[in-house]
From TrEMBL:
Database matches in SMART domains: TyrKc
Stretches assigned to the Protein kinase domain: 1-187
GO biological process: one example: cell surface receptor protein tyrosine kinase signaling pathway
GO cellular component, one term: plasma membrane
Protein name: Protein kinase domain-containing protein
Record bears the keyword Transmembrane helix: no
Keyword Secreted attributed: no
GO MF terms, alphabetically ordered: ATP binding; transmembrane receptor protein tyrosine kinase activity
Residues spanning the membrane: none
Superkingdom of this protein's organism: Eukaryota
Keywords in alphabetical order: ATP-binding, Nucleotide-binding, Receptor
Length: 190
């Protein structure tokens, strides 16, 4: 069971987009660590979120974020490591891993891809990822770019070490992406 608390400060997306508060790199790092911690918890319970994005991260206080919007979440049983979405469902294209776009397959690894995009959002004050590609519905073009190694550019104020984590999260092969447990280790060392 998941309990939802009121997040009076709204979504991280709205706050960053409006630049309501100036967030230091330290605070953004803290938020990233809190998101990773929440996602590691879901991972340990074999739940996939399927819609991790800044719009679904809520500010509980100026120093604390919580993951929200569990409407697309699915539990994985012990025999399966992924969930295949039924046809004609709406998905957040710009945050989706290649396998999710290609065949509707969602897994713990596709959540890691979404986490990488969420990090990118945080460090760009919530610019739209892949805006030009998805604005014209070019899902196929995006898949080709992903295969060729095209990824979101490094945000100007993002530390190189953190951008390297984003890049690892965007590995084309899901098996090459880190787990949330591994990502937690990275953020704790940082």
């Amino acid at each position: 069971m998941f309990c939802r608390k009121l997040a009076a400060l709204g979504s991280l997306y709205d706050t960053l987009r409006a630049r309501q508060y100036e967030f230091s790199l330290v605070r953004l790092w803290l938020f990233a660590m809190q998101i990773v911690s929440g996602m590691e918890y879901l991972e340990s319970r074999r739940f996939i979120h399927r819609d991790l994005a800044a719009r679904n991260v809520l500010l509980a206080s100026k120093d604390m974020v919580k993951i929200g919007d569990f409407g697309l979440m699915r539990g994985l049983n012990q025999e399966k490591d992924h969930y295949i979405m039924s046809a004609h469902r709406r998905i957040p294209f710009a945050w989706c891993a290649p396998e999710s776009l290609r065949i509707g397959s969602f897994s713990l690894s596709s959540d890691v891809w979404m986490f990488g995009v969420t990090l990118w959002e945080m460090f760009t004050y919530c610019e739209e990822p892949w805006y030009l590609s998805f604005m014209f519905g070019m899902c196929i073009t995006a898949l080709m770019l992903f295969r060729e190694g095209e990824r979101l550019e490094k945000p100007p104020d993002c530390p190189l070490e953190l951008y390297a984590v984003m890049r690892k999260s965007w590995a084309c092969n899901p098996a090459d992406r880190p787990s949330f447990a591994q990502l937690t280790g990275f953020f704790l060392q940082g």
